[in-house]
Write a structure and sequence with these properties.
Blueprint: H1 3-7, H2 15-31, H3 35-40, H4 45-59, H5 61-64, H6 96-131, H7 134-149, H8 152-163, H9 168-176, H10 181-195, H11 198-205, H12 210-247, H13 258-263, H14 265-271, H15 275-302
Family: Belongs to the binding-protein-dependent transport system permease family.
Main location: membrane
Subcellular location: Cell membrane
Length: about 300
């Protein structure tokens, strides 16, 4: 079949537009990352290994530290790291290493739940703003821009104040509902770009419906973008939980998380127990950096631009 005959049923395309779309094929191929380029991108082995180690430690925290992490040994307050207490103890005599292992459970759970909430919001708003007609599209775009103009920390504090109680679910909702805007804009940009690609026009010409296009074309392009955003959003969520706990509006202090551990830094500074701040902070920073490295690897591997 000739090219002119192939595009003839698409009444919205004239000859000039057909030439434009066909000319973009070579341009899109040049932008695609080649196999040689992909081979040069090194796999973040250390980051993946550390993340797997933290997940393993969170799942088997009861086996690795079979004691109550909140137990207060008043005769062992503010002890430096030793063979008995690998990460030392805090001002209340609690083992810091045990609190790190058990606190990883809730911190990772909050990160996972808030990332899922923000992804659902981003897919709903971003996908709708890309597919709906002009009036509704402009409303969603303006709504996203307004939410994006407000600092996320203020949104989290506001939402947490509305919910009143501090549970892992309320913290996850506060973080998730305040961090979907950038993801939504990226999803909208990707869908609008894919919708005008040549292979989508050809699929529409051959009778491909919306679900067929979503399964065969949109999903294959959006999955790398969603994977990249999920890893970076996961790291942001863990940092946000630690920030809320540090400000005193997160989970109660009797609930052990990495954020509540950092909240004890003021007491640690008074007793000069540097290990209470440094060691949990190292675990937090390494986890976030590993998640960002994984997201950056997916971005480079898939050829996703940062400024999309």
């Amino acid at each position: 079949m000739e090219v002119n005959e192939l595009f003839k049923p698409l009444k919205e395309l004239n000859k000039q537009e057909r030439d434009y779309y066909l000319g973009r094929v070579e341009e899109s191929e040049r932008k695609m990352p080649s196999r040689q380029t992909c081979r040069k991108i090194s796999f973040p082995t250390l980051s993946v290994s550390f993340l797997l180690l933290m997940i393993f430690a969170a799942f088997f925290a009861d086996v690795l530290f079979p004691f109550d992490p909140s137990y207060m040994a008043l005769t062992e307050k503010s002890l430096a790291p030793s063979s008995q207490h690998w990460s030392g103890t805090d001002s209340l005599g609690r083992d810091v290493f045990g609190m790190i292992l058990h606190g990883a459970r809730i911190s990772l759970l909050i990160g996972l739940a808030s990332t899922a909430i923000s992804m659902v919001m981003a897919l709903a708003v971003g996908g709708s703003s890309a597919m709906l007609p002009g009036f509704f599209k402009r409303i969603l775009i303006r709504f996203t821009d307004i939410c994006l103009s407000v600092p996320s920390i203020l949104l989290m504090i506001f939402l947490q104040g509305i919910m009143r109680e501090s549970t892992w679910m309320s913290i996850s909702l506060s973080i998730g509902l305040s961090s979907w805007m950038t993801m939504a804009k990226m999803i909208r940009t990707q869908i609008e770009r894919i919708r005008e690609e040549e292979y989508v026009l050809l699929a529409r010409y051959y009778g491909g419906g919306w679900f067929y296009l979503l399964k065969r074309h949109f999903s294959q392009t959006l999955v790398p973008v969603l994977s990249y955003m999920s890893f970076t959003g996961f790291g942001h969520a863990i940092t946000a939980e630690a920030t809320l706990s540090f400000l005193g509006i997160g989970l109660p202090l009797d609930t052990i998380t990495w954020g509540t551990l950092l909240h004890l830094s003021s007491q640690a500074l008074m007793t000069k127990a540097w290990w209470v701040i440094v060691i949990p902070g190292i675990f937090l920073v390494m986890t976030v950096v590993s998640l960002v490295e994984m997201g950056d690897f997916i971005r480079k591997r898939s050829g996703i631009e940062k400024n999309v």
